[in-house]
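Page 47, continued from p. 46.
Same chain as before, 450 aa.
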Amino acid sequence: MIIAIKPLLSKISLDLKKRVFFTLLIIVVYRIGVNIPIPGINIESIKFLFLKHQNNGILNILDIFSGGALRKMSIFSMGVVPYINSSIIINLIQGAHIVPYLDKLNREGEYGRKKINQIIKYLTLILGTVQAFILTLTMIKMSIRLYLPIVIDISFSWIFLSIITLVTGTMLIMWLGEQITEVGIGNGISIIIFAGIVEKTPRIFFRIIKLIQNKLLSLKYIFLLLVIMSIMFIILIWVETAYRKIYIHYVKKMSGEKLYNEDISFLPIKLEQSGVMAVIFATSILSTFIIIFQFVISRYNVLNFIIIKKFIKPIISNLVIYNIVYACLILFFCYFYNSISFDTIEIADNIRRLEGYVPNVRPGKQTSIYIYNVLKGITLWGAIFVIMIAIAPDYLSYIFNIPFLFNGTSLLIVIGVSLDVICQVESYIITKNYERYSILHTKKKKMVKI
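Result:
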């Protein structure tokens, strides 16, 4: 049997190698695009601008989502932010049941999902055009205001070219992400964001080495940095893989003259059910809001309005208030993502259909309520943990004056995407193994009958 399975395993590994190679090829294409600047841009001025504002949190977050493309003002400068915002808007509308047509599509299985994805793409095109227009006008404004020749020749034709280039870049990234999801390994958009974050690692290492050489950072602090990072990695991996078991009992069954004993299974509910999606959603929404606000105040004199002064401006200027708003958004999206991805009513109906039950809980509605309460309690603790990890590195870096390899958002995305890819690879191997083994076993039975 082992000898017979060996060729199957080699075929699986060949299929897997093809998927991995295809994913790496798409990442290479993406990284090439990151290094192609928008026509008519002065790259040296952009480098100087980012060096001057290197501690600006919003610029750094936007640069993360663009994979370093914003720093180079490349054709991929907007990254996947328009696509993420479109997904959030459609999911919010679906969750609120505002549009009956979307509810109908949601019930139509694979066909419905394809139609919803098509709607998200159209919305991405609209939001991408708006964001490209804002980014283009911001570049022009900075060129005039800071006396930096960011745009070499400001003209209507260049504005049109810049908007078309940025929108096309975003749509191309979205397509590349879809190819990774369908033909490669893992969630394509998450892997593209992951690749952009990991690409910065060598640059950060060189920065730390330079600080050591200039005696601005001692080995004692480097050791402290490694210890803190190691602890955070271990805790993060532990929490990402932790889950609560809800035991399900299946009643005894009679098949002919045989009586099968009661079977016991369990429903796993992850402690951090939303994974990195809550962080990506919160960061995308917050950064987009701040971009629009900064664009408005640069074009119009709105700082005198009481609402702007009292509520909106402190979010940008005060780190504590910014982190509080960021934490609230993460908390909201943890609950929101779980509500749309984990249908407790459907799960309870499936358990009842299979003649199962949760001990001491009535099947049907009571089971649904019980699972919902468990999910609600777990989501709170998972969200608190995510908030702590997202915010802690920035404060630790400020207190100890140590440059962390990744900020909290990057750390969550790197670990979350890595674990997701590992799980998908394992699932792929197990599924293909089972399919091929079943085919082999069926063929062997036929041969014996002959």
